[in-house]
C-alpha cells in the first residue's frame, strides 16, 4: 500500500515537473524570439537612418543638412517652419 502511494506521488511530481519544464521552455523561447526581433528591427532602422542621411547629403550641402538634423533632434518650441536660406554679400 505504501509502495503504491509512493508510486502515485512519484508519477504526479514527474508530470507536474514535465509540465513546468514545458511551460518555462515556451516562455524562454518566446522571450528569445521577441528579443531577436527587436534587435533586427533596431538594425533595420539604423540602416534606414543611414540611407536617409546619405540621401539628404546628396541633395543639400553638409552644413545645411547638419543644421536641419540638429533642429529636428532638438526642436525649439513655437518654431513651426524654419527657412534654411542664407544671404551672402559680394559673391561672384
From TrEMBL:
GO terms for biological process: adenylate cyclase-activating G protein-coupled receptor signaling pathway; cAMP biosynthetic process. This is Adenylate cyclase N-terminal domain-containing protein. Residues 4-74 form the Adenylate cyclase N-terminal domain. The chain crosses the membrane at residues 6-24. It comes from the Eukaryota. Keywords: Lyase, Membrane, Nucleotide-binding, Transmembrane, Transmembrane helix. It holds the Pfam family AC_N. One of its GO terms (cellular component) is plasma membrane. It comes from Euphydryas editha (Edith's checkerspot). InterPro entries: AC_N. GO terms for molecular function: adenylate cyclase activity; nucleotide binding.
Amino acid at each position: 500500500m505504501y509502495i503504491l502511494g509512493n508510486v502515485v506521488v512519484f508519477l504526479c511530481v514527474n508530470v507536474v515537473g514535465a509540465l513546468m519544464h514545458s511551460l518555462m521552455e515556451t516562455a524562454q523561447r518566446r522571450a528569445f524570439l521577441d528579443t531577436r526581433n527587436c534587435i533586427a528591427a533596431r538594425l533595420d532602422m539604423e540602416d534606414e537612418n543611414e540611407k536617409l542621411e546619405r540621401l539628404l547629403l546628396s541633395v543639400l550641402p553638409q552644413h545645411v543638412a547638419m543644421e536641419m538634423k540638429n533642429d529636428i533632434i532638438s526642436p525649439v518650441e513655437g518654431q513651426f517652419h524654419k527657412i534654411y536660406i542664407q544671404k551672402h554679400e559680394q559673391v561672384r
